[in-house]
Amino acid sequence: MSRGLVDARILLTRPAGQAAALGRMLASRGALVLQRPTLAIEPLPVQAPPTRKPDWVVFISPNAVRYGLPALAGSGLVAGAVAAVGPGTASALNQAGVTVTVAPTRGGGAEALLAEPAFDPAPGQRVLIIRGEGGRRRLQAPLQARGVILEELAVYRRMPAACRLDVPDDWLAVQLDAAVVTSVAGLQGLLAMATPAALEWVMDAALVVVSERVAAAARQAGWVAVTVADGADDTALLAALEQALERQKDD
């Protein structure tokens, strides 16, 4: 059992149902875990998938897998080359029985996928991107510059999880050791939901995030102790939490 996690109080903010495995991992190592989602994920009405089979299908997130595969059921569109933007998305595809052609083994995101030599759609090939509503669309422009034909299917949207961050009084009365935030939208939700007392409580804690972009937004909001995990998967987040707590102890 890791000493750094024993009795550590940790806030997880992922959407409902997406932090359970990490919560169990932390609890098994002696941590005290509070799960308070700051975002809710809602499926969008099923759209008609493209009628022409793409050369590549790219899944942007585990949520794209969760809601995209039913939308594509029976279409045969995921029978060819399949790409995932990170290991968490690749794991979701594998669990659903879909063979992943290429995915970054560490980290994740559009840049990481574009850097993979095996992700090589040629000019004139068709790429179908399964994604959420909105988002930064960092994959599209580089692919279009290659001469790739793009099609997109938005299958979910992010919504505020609640009006207020519900922190039990017995938690609020004790120092929070660390919080985990996995997106800028999740960070914005946390800031909007927290009462002044809860905001002071969470901002005094170490913060673990999944990208430099989220880290920059957190620092701009006022966090000082920010640790960037190597990826968004549970193993990477666990390692980052141990690192952040060890750093706290040294300070």
TrEMBL record:
Source species, domain of life: Bacteria
EC number: 4.2.1.75
Catalytic activity from the UniProt record: hydroxymethylbilane = uroporphyrinogen III + H2O
Pathway(s) this gene product operates in, as recorded in its UniProt entry: Porphyrin-containing compound metabolism; protoporphyrin-IX biosynthesis; coproporphyrinogen-III from 5-aminolevulinate: step 3/4
The Tetrapyrrole biosynthesis uroporphyrinogen III synthase domain, residue ranges: 24-238
Entry keyword set: Lyase, Porphyrin biosynthesis
Similarity field: Belongs to the uroporphyrinogen-III synthase family.
Protein name, entry field: Uroporphyrinogen-III synthase
Organism in which the protein naturally occurs: Spiribacter pallidus
